Amino acid sequence: MSRMLMGTSQVAEPFWKGTEEKILRVQFCKDCGKAHHYPRNFCPHCHGENLEWKDASGEGTIYAITVCHKPGLPTMAASVPYAVALVDLAEGPRMMTNIVGLEDVHTAKVGDKVKVAWEDAGSGKNLPVFEIA
Ligand SMILES: [Zn+2]
Prior knowledge:
The chain is mainly beta. The chain has helices at about 1-5, 10, 15-20, and strands spanning about 25-30, 35, 50-55, 60-70, 80-90, 95-100, 115-120, 125-130. The strands form 2 sheets. The chain has a 5-stranded antiparallel beta sheet, covered by helices on one side. A 3-stranded antiparallel beta sheet has the order 2-1-3. The longest helix is centred in the first third of the chain and has 8 residues, at about 15-20. The chain binds zinc ion.
């Protein structure tokens, strides 16, 4: 438990560094070869600790999607309605994200191919979101 709580932001640092250059990075396990996201100190597949960061292709497929008509946070009020999705990256990991750039937010659907886009997250960092490929 303490291992999971300890240094959570530290383990994610290469991820956020990558976003400064709009590079999507995921962790790969050298023991089992599988990728995962979100960043962790050990592999969720085999519990190995032999991890490395690699640049992802930025390509993925929508696994699940929903449209939010109420803002999740007050600061998101101007964004509604917006699409929240689980995207399966080409490298394997599934990540929660937003689908952007849609003329009609309801048109994106499960199985659509998407590619990473970036939203300014402040402090030089960017947030990975996705648009239809
Ligand atoms: Zn592993």
